[in-house]
């Protein structure tokens, strides 16, 4: 299945507009984002591409259904994996509710993060996900 | 990598010099030498000619191979200087040539200086003073003026307040910091910099102590610092744009993409 490109320009432009004071580094602002449904693992995989090629740290579960992979050194989000198995309905699907869970999980993670660059990168990714809900649901639907 | 490359070069020089000395010693007759020690040494060298030649040839060859291999990763200072000069031309494009020296682009590298080692025994009692501190030191600078700087900016990943200057803050936050319209540093004050309100104000806005600000030769009034990372994401240093003009970057939003592009280019060169 071909990955769906996510619209990130609005969120990225907001980050880039800020000039004076403390700002996110260009290394932590994603250049593109894509979503693909992994049919073997029954999971929606969202990848973020950056200007550098930092290696991944081991995957960390945020919740039972949501796992993230961050950069080994900077801690920026490289990948989000959302388990598509919905226990309530007993079906394989990614719903808007599930995406809201992702946002909640990211919010929870943000509050526990200490590094500025990582915190702001998570905020940016959250904003990208919020503005791409429909694309993500359709990516999961195949 | 550059340390290994330098070491390989030194090994090559030593091997070449020893080969020349060996060639001279070979021509000497051990029996014609007066001192017993020297007689024994020359005799030993005569007895082990093949081994000595092999070891020296191996040393030269290995160091040459190491240099060639390291060249791939060694930092290209000329390319870095070219990036900094190009950045200077772009960011300060509207500055008259005679004013260029007042606007600079500097690449700082994280390092630990030998002189910062906590030698004093009283420092060993305090855990904060006991550690060997890291500091940001000038690695390369645009243009031709102020090409050397002895003052480094201390950084500390465990204590935000211990990070000196806008560059130190950019290092600590692993991000970009831009400060404009810093107040003027009063040059007419004498005595302890801490006792002047204007100097305290300047230092506070520049994230350093008045004493530290006093040691810095150029008191810039606009500063923009961008962390430089290696392609693997590890922090390497800080790219700093500074100007004596309080609005030295003009419209920062226009200059930001150039600054970020330079930080990226440098990340590919370091």
Task: Please supply descriptive tags for the structure shown above.
heterodimer, A: alpha+beta, six-stranded antiparallel β-sheet, two-stranded antiparallel ribbon, 35% helix, B: 270 residues, alpha+beta
Description:
The complex is a heterodimer of chains A (about 140) and B (about 270). Chain A is of the alpha+beta class and about 140 residues long. Chain A has one domain (about 5-140). Chain A has helices at about 10-15, 95-110, 115-130, 135-140, and strands at about 5, 20-25, 30-40, 45-50, 60, 65-70, 75-85, 85, 90. A six-stranded antiparallel sheet of chain A has the order 1-3-4-7-6-5, with helices on one face. In chain A, α2 (about 95-110) packs antiparallel against α3 (about 115-130). Chain A is globular and about 50 Å long. The mean pLDDT of chain A is about 85. Chain B is an alpha+beta fold and about 270 residues long. In chain B, strands 3-2-1-6-5-4 form a six-stranded antiparallel sheet, with helices on both faces. In chain B, β5 (about 220-230) and β6 (about 235-245) form a beta hairpin. In chain B, α1 (about 1-25) packs antiparallel against α3. The longest helix of chain B is centred in the N-terminal third of the chain and has 25 residues, at about 1-25. Chain B is elongated and about 80 Å long. The interface between A and B is medium-sized, with 25 and 25 residues. β2 (about 20-25) of chain A pairs antiparallel with β4 (about 175-180) of chain B.
